[in-house]
Every structure is written in C-alpha cells, then in structure tokens.
Amino acid sequence: MSTARSAVLRDAVGLGLAVGLYGVAFGAAADAAGLDPWQATTLSLLMFTGASQFALVGVLGAGGGVAAAVGSALLLGTRNTVYGVRLVPLLQPRGPVRRVGTAHWVIDETTALAIAAPDRALARLAFLVGGATIYLGWNLTTLLGALGASGLGETAQAALDAVVPAAFLALLWPRLRRSSPEAAVQRRVAVGGAVVALALTPVVPAGVQVIAAVVAVALAGRPRPVSAP
Amino acid sequence: MSGTALWAAVLAGSLGCYLLKLAGLSVPAAWVEQPWVARVVDFVPAALLAALVAVQAATSGNALVLDGRLVGLAVAALALALRAPFIVVLVLAGVAGALVHVLAG
Hints:
The complex is a heterodimer.
Chain A: H1 3-32, H2 37-47, H3 50-61, H4 66-91, H5 95-103, H6 108-116, H7 120-149, H8 154-176, H9 183-200, H10 208-212
Chain B: H1 3-26, H2 29-32, H3 35-58, E1 59-60, E2 63-64, H4 68-81, H5 86-104
Antiparallel strand pairs in B: 1-2
Helix pairs in contact in B: 4-5
C-alpha cells in the first residue's frame, strides 16, 4: 500500500473515531430535549449532519415549534450544498443513482477529507472510507448517548443541562479561533447572533429567536472584492 | 410536545437537509458560487450556533434565567481557551452544572 493511500485511510478512520465523541453528546442533547432514543437515532441515520441535528434538538429543547426547529436545521444545512458543488469535480458521481447515494454523506468532515487528498482516486477513497467510518460511529454513539442519558437522576440531569450549551460552544469555537479565516468577523457575527437571540427571547415564540439571529450575518459585510496579487 | 410533532420535525428536517446536500451535486456550480452566497453560508453557522449557545445557557421558555448552566458555559469557555479536548470540555461543564445544582439545592 502506498504511503499516500495509508495516510488517507488513517486520517479517514481517525476522524471517524473522533466524531464518535460528538455522537454521544448529540444523543444526550436529544434526550435532554425530550426526544426518545429512536428519534435521536433516526436523525443520525437520515439527517446525518451534526450541526443541523444539534440545532434541531436545541430549538425543540428550548420549547420551540416544529417550523423553527426545522428552519434552523435547514439554515445550517446550506453549508452542505456548497460542499457538494466543491465535491462534484473530485468525486464525479455519474448518473442519478450514484448522485443520490453520494449526497447522503456530503458533510463537513467528508468534504475536508476529500479535498485534502492528493489526487482524485484518493479523494474518492477518503470520501467513502471517511463517510462509512463516520456514519457507523456517529449512529452507534448517538444511540449510546441517548440510552445513557435517559433515566438520569436530578443532579445528573443538571449536569446534562450544563453540557448541552457547552457542546454548542465547542462546535462554534473553531470558527472563532485566531487561526480561522476572518476570525474577527466570525466573532462579530457570533456576538451579534447571541445578542439578537437573547433580546428577542422575551417577545417571540420560543425557538424563533434562533432563526432570527441569522440577521447577524449582515455584520459580516459585503464579500471582499478579489484583490489582484 | 407530542411524539407525532417530534417525529414530524425529525422527518421533515431530515428530508430538507438531504435535499440541500443533493442540490449541491445537482445544480450548476455557478448558481452557488456567487460571492454573496459564499459569504452568507460562511457566516450562518457563527450566528446560529452562538444564538443556540445563548438560548441553551441563559433562557427558559420566554424568560432569561441565570443558573448552573451559565457557570458550566464559563468553565467550558475557559477549557476551550486552554485547548482542552472536546470530551474534557463537556465533563468539566457538566461537573460545574451539577455542583451549582447541589450547592444551590
């Protein structure tokens, strides 16, 4: 096996295992929001895109309605549309059947793995192996988290209540780090989103403030003109 | 919320998110690769995730609430700033939330 090939496989499997930890947190968050373990696992099987799943159960847990919960999941799901566009030239899924199958695994992690691979054959391998590992790990650990969180006592419930916002913060954090592109703008948008959500909480139906927070994206300003080198 | 409504949210959200993925593999690239589309998509997660952090940590229904969750969040922020791994961040936040619950009990 070539070194490039084994490096691709190692990254794909390693990422799959790391994502598993988030699956436990998601299963627990879904339980805290009032979903049963089957609903939590169905989300991981069918929705299979972490941030949207967390948003859906986050809004439901805050007392939000179906429309607000689905709306916030869809807003976060728009990322995957952009990823798909980037993946077409790499994966070249021919025909409707291949495209329908490939689409289900288009997420942050598989996109990062495929784009990082040194050539097109390895990009396909990274996408498939990464997708399979993450899909299996994410679903198994969701079920574990959901089953583990149901039937907790009162103090453990208080602990879980504090874990859920911490999990959202951990999802947000990498975007705010100095090393991420336009970290200062990301921070401005994040603070704006939090302020809008808190300000609207007393006056709108629960859950709607999360979707309304998307107006904070306006703080990012216009796209930068492409500068000449 | 009823089980039926929860299932409706689970299934409708799953279908919608799948169609967004499929759209990326199906529509002409030029539709998506406009500078303002890229701009909005880049910054939507920061706005929404921050809103969810705030709502999960400091509200209950339509009220703003200060309790152990906010203490847990502060501990989590500190742990993240010190580059603690995900699982450590969650455990520390959970311990902080449980401690406040016991002490305030």
